[in-house]
Amino acid sequence: MADRLNLITDVAGVLVGHADDARIRTGVTAVLFPERAVASVAILGGAAAVRDTSALAADGVVPTIDGLVLSGGSGFGLDAASGVQAFLAENGRGFPVGPVRVPIVPQAILFDLLNGGDKDWGRYPPYRELGYDAAAAASAGAFGLGSVGAGLGASTVNLKGGLGSASAVTPSGHTVGALVAVNAIGSAVVGDGPHFWAAPYEVGMEFGGLGLPAPMPPEATRLAWKGGRQIATTLAVVATDAALSKAEAMRLAIAAHDGFARALRITHALFDGDTLFAAATGRRPLGDPVGEQIEIGAVAADVVARAIARGVYEATSLGEGERPAGLVSWTERFAAR
């Protein structure tokens, strides 16, 4: 781990940038691919809202994409991709159609409209400008975690949500990274305690090093989720430097969804919008096309689980007026123990 950042930007050819608005309590995270990437998506939540995901179909004409966008704002947030497109177009990026280039930037949104922020933004929501700013801020180095970008206004059923990331290298040498905006319908921690469901996959002390409780508390498997019809969404991007086809990227997206189930109780529910994009920058060919793909999928699920825990672990509360009332961050609730 010493030679890596433990972030999705450890994958060569991946840039990440954030933009957010503390008054509105929302934000955008852009993932850009300067040399374009092969990508696909798996949507396993029952209430997803997405844009341009048809470009990721294995039988579609578009071979590669320029970026991916994760945003707050529910349906309003789908404007963010327009801002990212504008930035990429200014820089000569996009799918060529005659003399015109159209940047391809699929997007998914999470629901953060009930977190207490001032959503009275006038005729047009702010997401197009936030998307542009996130793209302009994208870099290949370190970036913020927790209450930043798309994770700013996120929550879980019992703790503040946030943006997390993690990376690993497969036994065959492929780098795999994940970026997750955790706005889960359920919980990332066991019962009412500080221990993360993702503890078996933790590397070092990346989310506290607490392990699992022993014995497991009686309330560990109690069902708890956000009440009413509040839509909740965990959004993820998994990236690898392996050379994959669009069909292979789709299999990676499906396999990586296992990380949601390892790190959250509950996920993939009727009022979830749980969506996971998989992208391959193609820097490293597959030696064993079958075995190495299996490795990449298995490691991707672990990395997603770790990124989810890190997103909650690194989050900070938004302060007075945050809803649900009394929702606090993991640090506020448990760090002093």
Task: Give a structural overview.
The chain has 337 residues and is of the alpha+beta class. The two termini are 28 Å apart. The longest helix has 25 residues.
Topology (elements, then pairings):
Elements: E1 15-21, E2 26-43, E3 50-51, E4 65-71, H1 80-90, E5 95-97, E6 100-102, E7 107-109, H2 127-136, E8 162-169, E9 175-183, E10 233-242, H3 246-256, H4 258-263, E11 275-284, H5 289-313, H6 330-334
Parallel strand pairs: 4-7, 10-11
Antiparallel strand pairs: 1-2, 2-4, 2-11, 3-7, 5-6, 8-9, 9-10
The average pLDDT value, as a whole number, equals: 94
Largest sheet: 9 strands, mixed
* Order of secondary-structure elements: EEEEHEEEHEEEHHEHH
Helix content range: 10-25%
Strand content: 15-25%
Enumerate how many helices there are, as a single number: 6
Q: Termini, distance in Å?
A: 28 Å
Shape: globular
Number of beta strands:
11
Assign the structural class, choosing from mainly alpha, mainly beta, alpha/beta, alpha+beta, or little secondary structure.
Answer: alpha+beta
Feature tags:
6 helices; two-stranded antiparallel ribbon; alpha+beta; nine-stranded mixed β-sheet; 337 residues; 20% helix
Give me a quick take on this structure.
This protein has 337 residues and is an alpha+beta fold. The protein is built from 6 helices and 11 strands.
